[in-house]
Amino acid sequence: MSSEKYRLGFVGLQEHETLIFSCLLSIHSNKWPKPWEASANGSPHAILYDLSSPEGRREWQQAQSQSQPVPIAYAQDSLPDVRWRLKKPSDTSALIDLLKDLAISLEKKTDAVSPQPDPPVAVQPVESPKSATENSDSGLWRRIAALAERHQAANADVKEIKLILGGSIGAGKTTALRTISEIPPIHTEARASDIVRRMKSETTVAMDYGELTLPNGKKLRLYGTPGQVRYEFMSDILCRGGLGLVLLINNAGDNPMHELTHYLRVYGDFVKKTGAVLGITHMDQKTAPGLQEYEAYLAREKWKIPVFSVDVRKREQILAMLETLIVQLEEK
């Protein structure tokens, strides 16, 4: 089964799980010699079976007698006797490692000569900032590295270090991520109708991804979450194991205070466990509500979240928000 990409199918997963896996395949396609993609058309090279669903269990049992496509068990149990398995719920690094090993196995079977090194995602050419170890603000990155080590030591299931950028549509999440990422940020749009068989919607799900290399060599992964209300479940999935939240609100929007109320509800549990900073963007276009109104609202609602007026194109302003967030987390 020769192709420029490996295709991964899904059986028994809920629609939102299929969407998030599909977006992650696109975002992290450069992690493998030959990219993986969600199988919408054509024969998949492997199928992920959710063993918590009747359909997944049934088809998984039937697939045991087949060598192609490769069956992958997606289950809460460890299943030590199963070669290809993914623990549920899964983190991104576990998915990357599994598909990397599976790609090597598939290449051996097909005697492939040369892999395809280029990722399938088109990105805008940008000048990448220096790595965190080369920047003059390396003190901040050392503190993040130390905080991440403490975080991982306290949470054995956390395998990747990540910060979440969330907020309203048009607030500047993609630009903010581009401003601080040391790699050209990856922007992916997954069309729902191409991925989920029974969905009738033609809408797209957009996510952004960037990276910073910390002084200890580990990667700080930056995730920009979708702004659409109907895809807020993806924010919940991406926040798992995250260090904290940078929340951006577009002050030029129709009702920014309503947007703030909504996103505090979406991210509320995550923020209570970690921390957050609030950046108000586009205040040059619309000055009301002002920062004092945001601060007064947060105080009334018992939220201890620092508020900034921020131009997300300016690196020093993004770093000031990150430093404030790290101070919060260090005090927890």
Question: How is this structure best described in words?
Answer:
With 332 residues, this protein is of the alpha/beta class. The chain has two domains: 6-110, Response regulator (Rossmann fold); 138-331, P-loop containing nucleotide triphosphate hydrolases (Rossmann fold). It is built from ten helices and twelve strands. The protein has helices at residues 15-27, 54-63, 92-110, 138-154, 173-180, 192-195, 232-239, 256-273, 291-300, 315-331; strands at 6-11, 36-38, 46-50, 70-75, 85-87, 161-167, 186-191, 204-213, 219-224, 245-250, 276-281, 307-309. It has a seven-stranded mixed beta sheet, sandwiched between helices. It has a five-stranded parallel beta sheet with strand order 2-1-3-4-5, with helices on both faces. β3 (46-50), α2 and β4 (70-75) form a beta-alpha-beta unit. α4 (138-154) runs parallel beside α10. The radius of gyration is 21 Å and the shape is elongated. It starts with 5 loop residues before the first strand and ends with a helix. Residues 111-129 and 192-204 have low confidence and may be disordered.
Shape annotation: elongated
Poorly predicted regions are 111-129, 192-204
- Which whole number gives the mean pLDDT? 81
Domain count: 2
Q: Give the neighbour order of strands across the main sheet.
A: 7-8-9-6-10-11-12
Question: Strand-residue fraction?
Answer: 15-25%
Radius of gyration: 21 Å
What is the annotated CATH architecture of the largest domain?
A: 3-Layer(aba) Sandwich
CATH topology label of the largest domain: Rossmann fold
- CATH class bucket of the largest domain: Alpha Beta
Largest sheet: 7 strands, mixed
Sheet/helix structural class: alpha/beta
Number of helices: 10
Q: CATH homologous superfamily of the largest domain?
A: P-loop containing nucleotide triphosphate hydrolases
Distance between the termini: 52 Å
Share of helical residues = 25-40%
Topology order in helix (H) and strand (E) letters: EHEEHEEHHEHEHEEHEHEHEH
